[in-house]
User: Fold this.
Amino acid sequence: MSLVFDVEAIPEDEGLDLELSESRKRFRIEAEDCSLARDIDLDGHLSRVGREAFFKGRVKTSLNLTCSRCLEPFQMEVDAEVSACFLPQPAQAPGEEMELNPADIEVEYYTENNIDLSQPVYDQILLTLPFVRLCRPDCRGLCPRCGINRNQEVCQCEEDKPLDPRLAVLKQLKDKMK
Assistant:
């Protein structure tokens, strides 16, 4: 099913309840370290007041990610709320700048009576991505010396590492406290 709706086809008094599944290919999230693992499920309610349309719902999917510490692939489930307000495209002179307000973040503009839920869904999927992507909270990452994955093997580099001379005083204090 399509994520494009004719504004006039949305009943003004009751709206539309939606349960949709859209192909992951439509969203083109296909980077090497982040890609969609499965199709997108979207359910929610689409309503209309005059020429303004409103959507509130949930998006569910899975992403294939690469761990920021150990560089191993893992999957992250996405289950996020999506909301958007669709307004007719305002008449604007070419090249004219438009100032955005905080309320404009959830506003989408449409032309030719067609609203498309793709952009708000795409935006919400990307907004769920954590800044640091970890395969698990206690990921130990790669050894900076030998490159071994410290989640899978014990690295000997830490034992061979010489003590920073600036920290020698703290080591002496630690040894005295034993």
